Amino acid sequence: MTSFVPRYFEIEQALRVRIATLDPHSPLPSDAQLCDEFGVSRMTARGAVQRLVQEGLVYRVPGRGTFVAPARAGRAASHVLSFSDEMRRRGRVPTSQLVERRTRGATDDERRRLGADDVVVLRRVRIADGEPLALETAVFPAARVTQVLDGDLERESLFATLANAGLTPTAGRAALVAESASAEDARLLRIRRGDPMLVERRLIHDQDGTPLELTESRYVGARYGLEVDFDVELPR
After folding, report:
1. What pLDDT was estimated at residue 73?
2. How many CA atoms are closer than 13 Å to the CA of 9, on its beta-carbon side?
3. Taking the CB of the first residue and of the last residue of the chain, which one, N or C, has fewer CB atoms within 10 A?
4. How far is CA 25 from the centre of its chain?
5. What is the pLDDT of residue 60?
6. Burial environment of residue 189 by CB neighbours within 10 A (0 to 12, 13 to 18, 19 or more)
7. DSSP 8-state class, residue 182
8. Which one of 30, 46, 68 terminates a domain?
9. Do 222 and 134 belong together in one domain?
10. Over the stretch 32-80, which tens digit does the pLDDT of each residue have?
């Protein structure tokens, strides 16, 4: 498979590394400076920075520039970061424990939503600073990712691994529900059965709009939270 990383993603990742070393409110390169550094158009540079704005990593001041945003306690519900990037943004060290990696036939729902007869299932415990935060089950069309997912996914970012193979997770739709911890949740996450869980189920598409990943993330309620930005609709 030919390796291709979109230019906007390359700029994003480079800026993430810089942001991790800077204090809040530190200035970042202007769009024009990014164009010169990476050899891209202003639209590409602006798009990469805008994605970081949407995630709350940076903020813009008209007429002055782009600056590092103060760290937030949780992820915005309207945006999905890779777990690795999210934890590093919080100053924590991310790792994973691989529970399962195998290829099997797709269920009817997986076949309908991913358009694949065979899928690769990847199950991991997501860990930050040695503390298990979530049990994640990700399902991918096997024909697209069989060789991509052969690497060390206990230490490497899954999103970055996919992007390096030309499969960039770009957009999707998620549903959030509250559930009680199962016996498996309790065993793998070191909690009690019945403890509150925040469960996120999402379908993510790649840069071409093709279904790429069907995921269930089961977060320990006491260890993880989401922030919600909203507008107030006034009565008419």
Report:
1. 39
2. 19
3. C
4. 24
5. 87
6. buried
7. -
8. 68
9. yes
10. 999 999 999 999 999 889 888 877 788 888 889 999 987 653 555 556 6
How many Cα atoms are found within 13 Å in the side-chain-facing hemisphere of 24? Answer: 8
Handedness of CA 34, 37, 40, 41 (dihedral sign): positive
Contact 187, 125 (CB under 8 A): no
Give the residue numbers spanning the domain of 50.
Answer: 7-68
Pair type for strands 75-76 and 226-227: parallel
Distance, in Å, from the CA atom of 200 to the CA atom of 219, rounded to the nearest integer, reads 8
Contact status, residue 161 vs residue 151, Cβ threshold 8 Å: yes
Whole-number Å distance between alpha carbons of 32 and 42: 7
The two beta strands, 118-128 and 94-105, are antiparallel
Q: Taken in order 70, 73, 79, 81, is the CA torsion positive or negative? A: positive
Sheet with 171-180, edge to edge strand ranges: 94-105, 118-128, 131-141, 211-220, 196-205, 171-180
Judgement on whether residues 119 and 37 belong to the same structural domain of the protein: no
The answer for residues whose C-beta is within 8 angstroms of residue 76's C-beta and 6 or more apart is 54, 55, 56, 226, 227, 228, 229
Residue 236 in any domain: the answer is no
Indicate whether 235 belongs to any domain.
no
For residue 132, tell me if it sits in a domain.
yes
Give the predicted TM-score (pTM) of the model: 0.67
Number of structural domains in the chain: 2
Sign of CA dihedral 14, 16, 22, 24: positive
Question: Considering the domain boundaries, does residue 176 fall inside one?
Answer: yes
Q: Token pair of 24, please?
A: 């809040």
Query: Could you say which of 51, 68, 85 is where a domain stops?
Result: 68
- Checking if the pLDDT of 2 tops 80, the result is no
